[in-house]
Amino acid sequence: MGRIVVTEFVSLDGVMEDPGGSEDFKYGGWTFEIERGEEGEKFKVDETMESAALLLGRVTYEGFAEAWPSRTGEFADKFNDMPKYVVSSTLQKADWNNSTVLKGDLVGAVSKLTKEVDGDIVVHGSRQLVQALQENDLIDELRLMVFPVVLGSGKRLFGDTSDKKRLRLSGSKTVGDGVAILIYQPARDGAEG
Length: 193
Known about the structure:
By secondary structure, this protein is α/β, with parallel strands linked by helices. It contains five helices and eight strands.
């Protein structure tokens, strides 16, 4: 059985736009200005090595598909080789190795995917997809790497929801130059953290 795991780089004010600097955001690449240290790097490598598949929105998929196939090394090899699923109503074909386009009902497609994939199905970036997954209570774990910076503008990770979404902190640590790694799970059935 698969688990939907969302992993994001965010600023203190919740901005997740262009952490790597490949988009046209005025603060693009903001995560590179703050060291996440060896422990932070290890967290991201371990997370990737433990991933069974990627679930991405179209925009993030296209950015990854442009960047990763030309890279080598353990991390890049894992990204390039593992199954990738892209949620899109407009993308007709996914050319990146081992990629499949998921169309139609998001809840049905993701529920089916969790039955077919054994292990963590990891979502990077993909803001609209993450918001839809959150709205439909499809996230099993949320991993935030919170950088100590307020950007003041930019696309934020969470938007409006139809109801409050209670989470339980299941892990935390500080790495590098004050980067907080926060791991949350849904607080289902009235469970308080």
